[in-house]
Amino acid sequence: MVSTILFSAFAVLAVAGAAGLVLLRHPMNGAMSFIMTLIALAGLFALLSAKLIFAIQLIVYAGAIMSLILFIIMFLNIGEKDLPDESNRWFYFGGGAVVIAPLAIFLLKVVNKLPSCEATIVGDSFGSVKGVGMVLFTEWLLPFEIVSILLLVALVGAVVLAGKREGKL
Amino acid sequence: MSAKVKTIERKGRTFLEHLYLVEVFKGMAVTFGHFFRNLMDNRRLYVRHYPEVKPEIPARWRGRHRLTTHEDGTVKCVACFMCQTNCPSNCIMIEAGERTDGRSEKLPVRFDIDLLECIYCGYCVEACPMDAIRMDTGIFSVTSYDRESMMIGLEDLLTTPAGCSEEEYQKGGC
Amino acid sequence: MSALDILLVILRIAFGAFVPLSFVAVLVWMERRGAGYFQDRSGPNRCNVLGFRAGGLIQNIADAVKLIFKEDIVPGHIKHKLYFILAPTLVFITAILSFAMVPFADTLVLNGKEYIMQAIPADLGILWFLAVVGFGVYGIILAGWSSHNKYGVLGGLRAAAQVISYEIPMGLALVSLLTIYSTVNLSEMARFQGQLLFGFIPMWGVFLQPLGVIIFIVAAFAETNRTPFDLAEGESEIVAGFHVEYSSMKFALFFMGEYVAMFVSSALIVTLYFGSYQIPWFSTETLVNHSKPVVFLLMLAMPVAAYFFNIWMKKNNRSQYERPNDPRVFEAQVYAAVIWSIVIFIEIIFLGFLIFSSGAGGARILVALLQIACFLFKTFLMCFVYIWVRWTLPRFRYDQLQRLGWQRLLPLALLNIFITSAVVVSLA
């Protein structure tokens, strides 16, 4: 019962935050509503007793990445006049809604067809740091390493790009 | 045109100093020494417990003003306006009246000093030809709850006693 | 749930919420009197209630009254009022919440049931701290940005850049610690530190990770925006940084948030590196099994400590100038009476314990209380180190700060991870 209420609350918050990100004009409002979405998603992970993912969602996405984005918004110090002219954006929103509506109805039908399943708390080790670590480093070692190489490449690329500009100036 | 070049040896370039931590701990030891000494015995604090223990005011110290009198009690001021003219902050307001005790022709009937304006520079004392205004009262805390009482008049100035003896004032005074 | 369960839940949450808050008062007092003593002056000691000064603690009440009754201003030029009001609450709430996972005593076993002594009994441990502290940055960023003030924006930028960059060495120092403890759960870390290294050194993080301690403490100082890293509010350059536009209780929330953050990071340093609640050389089981001798020793030690404390207090708690019928001597006598009556009260309780106690329940509660006292004492000392450093070191320049973070601490932390994992693998 409690978990259902929490789930609906988090789901509503997540959707509301996502809608706010698209609809609100000022970048700071958009970023803050996106943070709301990320926190609500973290709450959903916690409801699924995925503790590690919950913590990582909070640390990495809601904590680190979004604070960098806020930092940049603050750094640029965007005023009202710097924002692009979006006078006919409601037209685009309406058009987008019309295009997406059939897809959404289809998805809703699919989800409704799913057999109902009671959410229960699985054993203590599921989703914990140890449990995830064991699975990650035994069954999924190769994908994990490939992803980490990808991140390393991105890191090196960032350093190279930043260094190049400094050399020219 | 040969400029004298003096090479100054740069300090703080050794490895230990570069580590920074050793120096941090040295500094912390110094401050902790002070802390511990004062914690063990707070009589050693370098403080004066102010409202109860007053500071010693030397004779040269420029405190609140006063007007001096002759031995017979008549005011020394002759209302020459030297102090008012000299005052850089325009805080002195004198109104002269006729003098009847035969010492001179004028005496002040009003002598107001706005202490909120006064900057305690002592120019009025320097300017006075009669040694009538002095700043030797030793009053250093001029405070009040309203603006009106910061305007002191002739009566206050005359009745304020000197903060030091005449000899001391002559010896160290301005 | 039995009544005992509910009582313990309430007690733990109350501990998690109110101990940081009451430490704010203690820390403000310590900061001011400590600053005074470090600089050979006396600090605020005049405020009193009926002549009782409590060593200057009454000043805190005066401050609180002042802050509560000040006018709460939201300046007219502020456009985003929601963020302006949200910012101080975020700073304060995240500071308090980050204490929730810190254990303050060993798991209490009563009637065969285990109670984990932390405010939220989950095993996220250090991850929770990292997650919640990350949100504290938002408070600072939002405060600086929504103030619409150049000093505010500069302070917010500095604070955000500093916290984000020092989170990396901090996290890396933690990684090497985690390889040693092989858990993220703070309770298990604390239990690990109850062991002995080579049979005589307590197995504290500080002995296993001497380099990690330094990195972590430096990063923690930077995270809490304390001197020498308090550029965010460098008053000589940017007035007060991100909280220039705040007044009254909104300012007080920033202020309290800063001190709560200081308390929490000291508690965390103690938990990670200084043995948490563990009393050195006395594990929980030893204490429980030998509860009666321990109580007897405490009964002997308490009057001795109270005696010396009273001598010190009588020497220092009197007016340092000529004063007839010095009221502070009377004040010290009253304090001495209070202290002795508390000592006698505790002695009676201990005596009752010695005579009537049977079974492990009482002994376990006693040991838990002892460990809480030990934990708070260690945290208090760590907070003192914060204050000590603040009144010793000058502020860094901003480029020095970033260079220290990225060019010194980051490679050192990586090196530390490398060495630690090499040692751990070779020993395993």
UniProtKB/TrEMBL annotation, chain A:
<dbReference type="GO" id="GO:0005886">
    <property type="term" value="C:plasma membrane"/>
</dbReference>
<dbReference type="GO" id="GO:0008137">
    <property type="term" value="F:NADH dehydrogenase (ubiquinone) activity"/>
</dbReference>
<dbReference type="InterPro" id="IPR042106">
    <property type="entry name" value="Nuo/plastoQ_OxRdtase_6_NuoJ"/>
</dbReference>
<keyword id="KW-0472">Membrane</keyword>
<protein>
    <recommendedName>
        <fullName>NADH-quinone oxidoreductase subunit J</fullName>
        <ecNumber>7.1.1.-</ecNumber>
    </recommendedName>
</protein>
<dbReference type="InterPro" id="IPR001457">
    <property type="entry name" value="NADH_UbQ/plastoQ_OxRdtase_su6"/>
</dbReference>
<comment type="similarity">
    <text>Belongs to the complex I subunit 6 family.</text>
</comment>
<feature type="transmembrane region" description="Helical">
    <location>
        <begin position="31"/>
        <end position="48"/>
    </location>
</feature>
<feature type="transmembrane region" description="Helical">
    <location>
        <begin position="90"/>
        <end position="108"/>
    </location>
</feature>
<dbReference type="GO" id="GO:0048038">
    <property type="term" value="F:quinone binding"/>
</dbReference>
<keyword id="KW-0812">Transmembrane</keyword>
<keyword id="KW-0520">NAD</keyword>
<dbReference type="Pfam" id="PF00499">
    <property type="entry name" value="Oxidored_q3"/>
</dbReference>
<keyword id="KW-0874">Quinone</keyword>
<feature type="transmembrane region" description="Helical">
    <location>
        <begin position="140"/>
        <end position="163"/>
    </location>
</feature>
Automatic annotation (TrEMBL), chain B:
<dbReference type="GO" id="GO:0051539">
    <property type="term" value="F:4 iron, 4 sulfur cluster binding"/>
</dbReference>
<keyword id="KW-1003">Cell membrane</keyword>
<dbReference type="GO" id="GO:0048038">
    <property type="term" value="F:quinone binding"/>
</dbReference>
<feature type="binding site">
    <location>
        <position position="128"/>
    </location>
    <ligand>
        <name>[4Fe-4S] cluster 1</name>
    </ligand>
</feature>
<keyword id="KW-0411">Iron-sulfur</keyword>
<keyword id="KW-0408">Iron</keyword>
<comment type="similarity">
    <text>Belongs to the complex I 23 kDa subunit family.</text>
</comment>
<keyword id="KW-0004">4Fe-4S</keyword>
<feature type="binding site">
    <location>
        <position position="80"/>
    </location>
    <ligand>
        <name>[4Fe-4S] cluster 1</name>
    </ligand>
</feature>
<keyword id="KW-0479">Metal-binding</keyword>
<keyword id="KW-1278">Translocase</keyword>
<dbReference type="InterPro" id="IPR017896">
    <property type="entry name" value="4Fe4S_Fe-S-bd"/>
</dbReference>
<feature type="domain" description="4Fe-4S ferredoxin-type">
    <location>
        <begin position="109"/>
        <end position="138"/>
    </location>
</feature>
<dbReference type="Pfam" id="PF12838">
    <property type="entry name" value="Fer4_7"/>
</dbReference>
<protein>
    <recommendedName>
        <fullName>NADH-quinone oxidoreductase subunit I</fullName>
        <ecNumber>7.1.1.-</ecNumber>
    </recommendedName>
</protein>
From TrEMBL, chain C:
<dbReference type="GO" id="GO:0003954">
    <property type="term" value="F:NADH dehydrogenase activity"/>
</dbReference>
<keyword id="KW-0874">Quinone</keyword>
<dbReference type="GO" id="GO:0048038">
    <property type="term" value="F:quinone binding"/>
</dbReference>
<keyword id="KW-1278">Translocase</keyword>
<keyword id="KW-0812">Transmembrane</keyword>
<feature type="transmembrane region" description="Helical">
    <location>
        <begin position="251"/>
        <end position="274"/>
    </location>
</feature>
<feature type="transmembrane region" description="Helical">
    <location>
        <begin position="334"/>
        <end position="356"/>
    </location>
</feature>
<dbReference type="InterPro" id="IPR018086">
    <property type="entry name" value="NADH_UbQ_OxRdtase_su1_CS"/>
</dbReference>
<feature type="transmembrane region" description="Helical">
    <location>
        <begin position="368"/>
        <end position="389"/>
    </location>
</feature>
<comment type="function">
    <text>NDH-1 shuttles electrons from NADH, via FMN and iron-sulfur (Fe-S) centers, to quinones in the respiratory chain. The immediate electron acceptor for the enzyme in this species is believed to be ubiquinone. Couples the redox reaction to proton translocation (for every two electrons transferred, four hydrogen ions are translocated across the cytoplasmic membrane), and thus conserves the redox energy in a proton gradient. This subunit may bind ubiquinone.</text>
</comment>
<feature type="transmembrane region" description="Helical">
    <location>
        <begin position="82"/>
        <end position="105"/>
    </location>
</feature>
<dbReference type="GO" id="GO:0016655">
    <property type="term" value="F:oxidoreductase activity, acting on NAD(P)H, quinone or similar compound as acceptor"/>
</dbReference>
<feature type="transmembrane region" description="Helical">
    <location>
        <begin position="6"/>
        <end position="29"/>
    </location>
</feature>
<keyword id="KW-1003">Cell membrane</keyword>
<feature type="transmembrane region" description="Helical">
    <location>
        <begin position="294"/>
        <end position="313"/>
    </location>
</feature>
